[in-house]
Description:
Layout: E1 4-8, H1 12-23, E2 27-32, E3 45-47, H2 51-56, E4 67-75, E5 81-92, H3 95-108, E6 112-115, E7 119-125, E8 128-133, E9 138-141, E10 143-146, H4 153-157, E11 169-177, E12 184-190, E13 193-199, E14 205-212, H5 213-219, H6 222-228, H7 234-241, E15 244-245, E16 251-254, E17 264-265, E18 268-270, H8 285-302, H9 310-336, H10 343-355, H11 357-367
Parallel strand pairs: 1-2, 1-10, 2-6, 4-12, 10-18
Antiparallel strand pairs: 3-5, 4-5, 7-8, 8-9, 11-14, 11-15, 11-16, 12-13, 13-14, 17-18
The structure holds flavin-adenine dinucleotide (FAD).
Flavin-adenine dinucleotide binds near residues 8, 41, 118 and 256.
Amino acid sequence: xxxxxxxxxxxxxxxxxxxxxxxxxxxxxxxxxxxxxxxxxxxxxxxxxxxxxxxxxxxxxxxxxxxxxxxxxxxxxxxxxxxxxxxxxxxxxxxxxxxxxxxxxxxxxxxxxxxxxxxxxxxxxxxxxxxxxxxxxxxxxxxxxxxxxxxxxxxxxxxxxxxxxxxxxxxxxxxxxxxxxxxxxxxxxxxxxxxxxxxxxxxxxxxxxxxxxxxxxxxxxxxxxxxxxxxxxxxxxxxxxxxxxxxxxxxxxxxxxxxxxxxxxxxxxxxxxxxxxxxxxxxxxxxxxxxxxxxxxxxxxxxxxxxxxxxxxxxxxxxxxxxxxxxxxxxxxxxxxxxxxxxxxxxxxxxxxxxxxxxxxxxxxxxxxxxx
Length: 372
Ligand SMILES: Cc1cc2nc3c(=O)[nH]c(=O)nc-3n(C[C@H](O)[C@H](O)[C@H](O)COP(=O)(O)OP(=O)(O)OC[C@H]3O[C@@H](n4cnc5c(N)ncnc54)[C@H](O)[C@@H]3O)c2cc1C
């Protein structure tokens, strides 16, 4: 049957949904407000749990020399450090390269990818959707997937609860050239946040931190805040002083929330970060975006017969599978974040890793899924 599906947002969740649905004969239009390729704030460490799926679907970017990450280092604000090997590990690749590669795959699968076009409104009427985009075009669709990321104006228009409170966080990302092991990801604490460093492709490294909006307001600029707060961790001081920074200016985002979100809003099926953002220290948001897209597109494809209860069935199955797969992970991520960003708790966390590495492993396991 001739389903029409509109996807809002062309990050990992949007692109993977689009590819899987289009390959199964569904007519898919994907709106992405930016133009590929582009940089976005992200630590760019992907858990290996996605590798079997990406390889099976020919979506692993084999032509790019990704890094392979097996070691984890954690440092306190004062500079105490501990290391663990990662059970599952991950790989590093820039979103610039990965999302661009997937957008090409989406076009090859027959998706209508509309770049530089944002969705402004979505209305649900008479069991179908009317979508209006920034070009002024109106379209209709049988299903709409919301994959527009951490937060956006659509959340306010949909009156989603989490969007009513301002977020206390900012995210900042650089690409750098530096002297750092290729197989290690380090998380360095500073007052009010933490900064990750790990290798991506082409001998480059990702340096990305979660900081506080309050610090930025207090010090007036990113540079001044880094000087006064971020570089207080001796490991970060060394990195900031001994690296080539490859961007003219950092990528910066604010207004994102780790609070629980509704999965289905006005019949729009939310996916990836739009359904729930796991705290970045878990290094699992990208894997969750990809996995949630697999779950959602498979449910839509398994329910292709028409019938009065079809939409209800899709929504119920998606809610049940999403809760079973991700709800606990998000909760563990929120609890673990409390161990970061303060002198006392970051010292406790390093002590915990040293004294009881099995607890640290258990927490890590709790934020990750099994390979799929
Ligand atoms: C500081 C920080 C560090 C992180 N580090 C890591 C990490 O190392 N590893 C990891 O796995 N995860 C990490 N994450 C999380 C990870 O970035 C996300 O979970 C992941 O990007 C989610 O993908 P997505 O497709 O849901 O959303 P996104 O990748 O954000 O994609 C959403 C897309 O929608 C587009 N869009 C938005 N609104 C509209 C609209 N109205 N119309 C059309 N298009 C629209 C946007 O331009 C964007 O391209 C980090 C997050 C933060 C904040």
